[in-house]
Amino acid sequence: xxxxxxxxxxxxxxxxxxxxxxxxxxxxxxxxxxxxxxxxxxxxxxxxxxxxxxxxxxxxxxxxxxxxxxxxxxxxxxxxxxxxxxxxxxxxxxxxxxxxxxxxxxxxxxxxxxxxxxxxxxxxxxxxxxxxxxxxxxxxxxxxxxxxxxxxxxxxxxxxxxxxxxxxxxxxxxxxxxxxxxxxxxxxxxxxxxxxxxxxxxxxxxxxxxxxxxxxxxxxxxxxxxxxxxxxxxxxxxxxxxxxxx
Length: 246
Prior knowledge:
The chain is α/β, with parallel strands linked by helices. About 45% of the residues lie in helices and about 20% in strands. The protein has 8 helices and 6 strands. Strands 5-4-1-2-3-6 form a 6-stranded mixed sheet, sandwiched between helices. Helix 1 runs antiparallel to helix 3 (about 80-100) and helix 5 (about 125-140) packs across helix 6. The longest helix has 20 residues, at about 40-55. The chain starts with a strand and ends with a strand.
């Protein structure tokens, strides 16, 4: 019987990984890894999110997507009321702040990438490799590196999913800076999957990207996330937040 680690990882992205048509207003690709201790996730994080949904929507079938919330698209058109929007966003920020998880995010600055490299690697593949390497380091610090850890990615389509799985397996087979196997397991989830972990990962990715683009601009969302960024030897940058290239 396989032995699983005490942790589970949910992953989502912000931006696109195209290097041929770069959005000048948002020229970054972010891959955000939310690492939860399974006991905390099951006993605290999930019930808290369900209760938040019950309070504001009357049911727990709604799926929180940062883009739909930000643009106030259905079913979040109720947020067009300023007073209600402020109440909901404050409570959502409080939920994120109080949720116990470790955040490891990788941001690829695509403009810097194409200007500094003649044959740049796919930003998605780079971000995933950097993320997996840092999570392995996190697991080592928690004596969990020899146990199986599951990563939940949101499905993006058959071709994209196959490419992702191929690169995931390649890194886990030893194509990493440690040149050792990682005991990681990949699980793809539908975009319609009502997963608390995936929704939190979705909520974290864009604030990270905005911070990378405007590091001196205050952001309520990033302020809620910054204490959760993984730190090693007293340093967050390069570990909890990896930006490439600098």
